[in-house]
Amino acid sequence: MELYLDSADIKEIEEAFQLGFLTGLTTTPTFMHREGVKNVDEIILKLSKMVPILQVEALGDNADEIVKEAKRLVKLGLSKEKTVFKIPVSLEGVKACKKLTDEGYQVNIHLVYTLQQAYMAMAAGATYVCPLVGRLQDQGHDALALVQQCVDAVNYYGYRSKIMFSSVRNVEHVRNAINIGVHTITVPWKIMKQLTENHFTAIGTQQFEEHTKLMTKRVKDIIRQENPTVKLTETVLDAIVQMTESGFGAVSVIDSKKNLVGVFTDGDLRRKLKENGKDLLKKKMSEFEFKTPLTIESDALLNDAVQLIKQKNVDNLIVTEKGKLKGMLDVQDLIDIGLMG
């Protein structure tokens, strides 16, 4: 099934055709008017250079005028092989269609609302026959039944025409088109962008990414440059300043030789503040006893870090490199890359 973009928005056309597999572009005078186009010929030529196939309107009060307009656009610079001329269905429209297709032009008979109209377009040799599904449904008609009848007519009688499913309003319309077996569909960009979306796909992708990170990334890949430390000779106030400036909820406590002694956390701060009151701020780190801190080597996999944090129910791990203090891994660092909620 051919897939066309239905638009006149230059930015979204550029974005959409980066996909690399769209058949072409359908556009209308209404779309161009909405985009504030002032020079129709100029925009048509620009679009023709941006897409593989351009479907564009050829209008006139009678068949001769319609044919004349199509030929004028080709003389203007459109490629006969890469342009499909859209003609609203009417007696003059199908007459023009026959004249143009006999001369090798491609034609889309559109604004089709009945099987009879579609039949006349097929009989006239239209390259595309285009029922407007959304508009028909807005009026309370069974648009899907019409499209199915058009497809059946082409398949049964062997017409060369392709049935184009247009006036797409939602992703369900795309599913309908596939089930019916239309030959081509034209879709607005906002709908096309939704076609690969699915909640379960998103969850599965997230899990794959998370597990890949756990198995391939190492602690050193995500720890921040800041390494908040406080010496044994420094005070609780100094520790608070370090935590505030670094954004960590803990600081590493080191001795005069920069050896790791322990960790002072915001939890320790709250508990000791309750015990000592404001006097706590003047106390030195050397006045406290510290448990052996939880450490992890910088070359360890993130999976090991996550398991250790969960097992010990802590928010921080001290990161070492060959036994020497390297930095600190905060649970927020893991949250930021989607490994912990």
From TrEMBL:
Coiled-coil zones: none
Organism whose genome encodes this protein: Raineya orbicola
Cross-referenced Pfam families: CBS, TAL_FSA
Residues annotated as signal peptide: none
Sorted UniProt keywords: CBS domain, Schiff base
Name of the protein in its database record: Transaldolase
Start and end residues of each CBS domain: 222-280, 285-341
GO biological process: carbohydrate metabolic process
InterPro entries, per the entry: Aldolase_TIM, CBS_dom, CBS_dom_sf, TAL/FSA
Lineage: Bacteria, Pseudomonadati, Bacteroidota, Cytophagia, Cytophagales
Gene3D superfamilies referenced in this protein's UniProt entry, alphabetically: Aldolase class I, CBS-domain
